[in-house]
Amino acid sequence: MSSVIDISDAPLGGGGRRAYLGRLSTESPRMPDSAALPVNAIEVRGLEKTYAGSKKAPPKVALRGVDLVIPRGSMFGLLGPNGAGKSTLINILAGVVNKTGGTAEIWGRDIDKQPRDARAALGVVPQEIVADVFFTPREALEVQAGFYGVPANERRSDELLAALGLSDKAHAYVRALSGGMKRRLMVAKALVHNPPILILDEPTAGVDVELRRQLWEYVRRLNAEGVTILLTTHYLEEAQELCDTIAIMNRGEVVACEPTPQLLRRLDTRNVVVTPEGALKALPKLKGFEAVARPNGAFAVTYKKGQSSVEQVLAAVRAAGVTIADIVTEDPDLEDVFLALTYGDESQVSPTKD
Fold first, then answer.
1. How confident is the model at residue 345 (pLDDT cuts 50, 70, 90)?
2. Using CA atoms, how far apart are residues 83 and 204, in angstroms rounded to an integer?
């Protein structure tokens, strides 16, 4: 039986670097007694941020009373167009930006009352690649572990390099690494202190398909071991496949935060893609529906599931004199929901404009 050490109230950093794990099993560092752990990994309430103005520009409101709860152990996606406030929120959690108002807790620690303990529970992979080009990857991990006070005999530099496919580059200079390898090194640096929460801010930007697959396999493994993942990405198909819960931000506000399947059901629409028997000279005029051209002579008809049915669509197509060779139905994906929530309201200014 493994020995269990109760360090739930110990400070983080130095010898107490794993205190955020609560009751720590020495044989299974990622599987502590759940009774000692917080229910939520991150809790944000009424978070506000306004950047000061200047003579040439007025104050900029980046966050407008954001409320966000990220359950412990979840794979959580944070999406939004450029300028939505995602990076500002992450930077506040990481201690890089000071908030204007509201509260935030990380692993049960208030970022104002216990700033060092709260941030020690985070591993952050920023958008920008930040690495000393005169270090080797192994040296970079050893230095990073030293910053967190990780004892030399507890460091996992070789394990992390192997997990992220960098073992053969362990002693090469960072300046010789490709962009994708440097990004994987950033992930390894974020994990040197064994944090219970990992924030990935656009981690696959500039990474090729195979390296992206390897990275997501490793992230899934971390999540299965109990690590909470907060992911921001512009690759919406990745978020749809990976995340169990997704929040969408727009102009400094959270406009949706739901389990992924529930979020995908927000749009009560479906597409019927019709391939006609022969080439059509023009799109058919359908009673009660609109046809939109698709490649290879096909066309799509969108209908609301609560108001119409596939049979009604097909009846309208046949009534227009079209002989049907094949049909395919399409349900909305995350991109459709995202566009509807961020760009769908024409009364609002484009979310990418100040």
1. low
2. 19
